[in-house]
Amino acid sequence: MKKTFISISQNDPKRRRFFRSCFLSTMLMLSAVFLCGSQFIVRGYKEKFLSLGLVDAMHNAISKNCEDQCRPEGTEALPKGIVSKTSDFVMQPLWGPRIQKKPKSSTNLLAIAVGIKQKESVNKIVKKFLSSDFIVMLFHYDGNVNGWRDLEWSGRAIHVSAMNQTKWWYAKRFLHPDIVSEYAFIFLWDEDLGIENFNIGRYLSIIRKEGLEISQPGLDPDYSEVHHDLTARDKRSEVHRKINKTIGGGRRCDENSTDPPCTGFVEMMAPVFSRASWRCVWHMIQNDLVHAWGLDFQLGYCAQGDRTKNIEIVDSEYIVHYGLPTLGGSAANKTNAEEQEQAAKNMSLPSSKQLAPSQSPPSDPRTEVRKQSFVELEIFKNRWKKAVREDTCWIDPYQKTTQQISKH
C-alpha cells in the first residue's frame, strides 16, 4: 500500500500541483501573519520607548525647574505651599478670632534689657512705645519677671528671663532675622535712658525720609554719659552724620573723614536697625562674646551701602543716657557693705580679736565686667582680622577701616 500511494502521488501531476499550491498558500499566510505581528510588536516597543523618553524628558524639565527654586534647608520633603519661613511675636488667643498681622511697614519692635531696679524708667519707655504700635520684648537679666506683673501693659509684652546676661546675648538667641522679619525697625535699647524729649512718630518719619538703615537718637550732652562725640546732640540741626572737631587721642575729624567714630557710627546703648541691616548685624554678633565691644565700629558693613550716608544721629528727637551700672552692680554694693561692716566691728574690738583684713582687694563684679569687656574687644578684633585674611573672595569697601581697627 505504501508503494501504491507513492506511486499514485508521483504519477498524478494534478495532485502534485494541488499539494504544492496548498503548501505555498499556507507559507504565504504564515509569513503575512509573522510580518504583521512583528510590526505590531516593534511599534508597541517603539511607542513604549518613546513614551519613556518623553516621561524622562518631562521629569528632567521639572527637576531642572525645581532646582532653580530656592527652598529653605530642611524643607525639601515638604510641598512648597506649606512652608512657613518666618515668625513674629504676635500672641494668639487660645480660642476665638485670630489676630491679623499688620502691614510690615507699620509694625516695629522694641527689645530692652531690664532689671527691677529700673522699673520706673522702663515703665515710661514702654508706655510711650506701646502707644506707637510697637511690639515690646523685655529681657530680664535679674530673673525677676513677677515684679512687673502689676503694670497694666505687662500682659502685652514678651518676657524672656536669663540671669546676668547682656542684651546682645539675648539678641543673638531670641531676635533671629527670620523671627523679626515682620518688623520694619528694631530698637535694641538699654534701660537707663530718659525719653522725655523723644517722639517716636517723628523719629520714624525722619529715618524713613533720610533712608537710614542704622541710627540712634542724639544724646543730650548736658545730662548724658557720652563716650563718643559723634553721638552728642547737635542743637542746630535735625540730623547729623559727621563731626568736625578733634576727638580722643588727638585724632581730627573733618568733612573728609570716612571712618568711625567720625562718621558712620552709633553707640550701643540705643541703636535702631532696619530689617535689612539687622539681618546682617545678627550674623556679626559673636555667639560667645556677650558684651559686643568692637561691634559698633563695624556696623558700617551692615549699612546696606555707604555708611557715611545710611548711618545717622537724629538730633531733633533726643534722649538722655544716664550710664547707670546695672550688670554686676548689686553684687558690688553687697561686697562694699560687708567690708564697711567688718571695719566698724574692728574699731570696737581689742587688737587681739580684730578680724584680719582681706589679703587681696575684695572682688568687685563691676570691675570684672569691665575687664571682660576689654578681653572680648580684643577677641573680636582678632577674629575680624583672621576672617579678612582667610576669606579670599571678600572685598573690603572700607580698606582703611580694616587697617586701623586695632587703633580703636
From TrEMBL:
InterPro entries in UniProt: DUF707 (IPR007877)
Bilayer-crossing regions: 21-42
Keyword Transmembrane among UniProt keywords: yes
Domain of life: Eukaryota
Record keywords, A-Z: Membrane, Transmembrane, Transmembrane helix
Pfam short name (any one): DUF707
Keyword Transmembrane helix: yes
Region annotation Disordered: where it falls in the sequence: 331-369
Residue spans of biased composition, Polar residues class: 343-358
Name of the protein in its database record: Uncharacterized protein
Protein species of origin: Rubus argutus (Southern blackberry)
